[in-house]
What does this fold into?
Amino acid sequence: MNAEHYALGIDFGTSGARAIALDPSGAIVSSGRVTVELGDPAQWAEQWRQALIQLLGQLPLTVRQGLGAIALNGTSGTVLLCDAQGHPVTEPLLYNDSRGQVVIDDLRAIAPPDHPVISATSSLAKLLWWGDRGLTRDGPLYLLHQADWLAFQLHGILGLSDYHNALKLGYDVVGDRYPDWFQTLPAAVQSVRLPQVLTPGCPIACLQPAIAQQFSIPESCEVCAGTTDSIAAFLASEAVVPGQAVTSLGSTLVLKLLSQTRVDCPAEGIYSHRWGDQWLVGGASNTGGAVLRQFFDDEAIAHLSQQIDAAIPSQLDYYPLPGPGERFPVADPHLPPRLTPRPPEDVLFLQGILEGMARIEAQGYQRLVDLGASPLTQVYTAGGGAQNSTWTAIRDRYLPVPVRPAAQTEAAYGVARLAQRRSLHRG
It folds into this structure.
């Protein structure tokens, strides 16, 4: 066996990062986790870099010495601008940042109807927002997604992305190029260097020698093109047949339905990712764990969940959001959270929140099918929320198909499999 036979996947989410290393059989040989407490936005990128370094350092020496490939995923639509050395020159704009709403009319005038970029949170909307505020600077500017920038820290080649992260930037995943209508973008935006787009999982370059030496990793270890967090979660599941879907229950609620038909409806936050000759159709709601943590810590959620009778509805009609604004299944940057009335019993309040999330999930899948996606037949669950059996029982009541945990529930596992295969679609 080749001495360099382990594959490492690194998942960057909203509140932390996770690393999982696999042996050739797909068995987990090591895992690690780092919490990222985002404070000053000007420090976010550096916090991500420090988390990446910590995760590498957490790996056992024997695993580091056997690493043959690394891939990363980040939150979809999280972007930043860098200089020619890769140093951030802007604060990152996160996946759910909707300040791009002010340029939506400009996007509608430029992009084709029903294009995924016509969204307040798309990468291109954020780039236009930056352009409106002036991008005058000595030297070139590069736009990178979170996964792009973190991978750059490892391989040192600036300006590379993958076609999953680049979808919301406007990349044509069928023609495999930036579209002709990009020529009509404002001049300030056209001056920004957009990333070269690669197939997720394809090898980019070997690890930078300094990092390889620091962590005793072979210099021949390949850094591969990455993907987004929700697609990495899909890769970790058993879903392989059209009609099968994965719900990622993390800080947000992300739905992905494998479909023979492409569906794009940015007005409702729906878009499709390329998946070989099929499509991953879905969207992401702002509901999820971030709402729960506004009221309960993990210990309280686990304790209260055990007291909920999932078979008896709470009669509460909540639309739980962490703040104003929703992406899918309702695209409304001003939609207010609905979390009242609050009952005196915490158990009932938590149940109402979980039921609200389950209704949003069911509404989301129904909308995907109504718009032409393959009929839903099975839902696998990934993310931290997959461990909550009460939440699963509540979702089972709202969803019309079987609900079960994914074979693996961590996005880091999925992106490790991507690194292991060196291709999105190889078995």
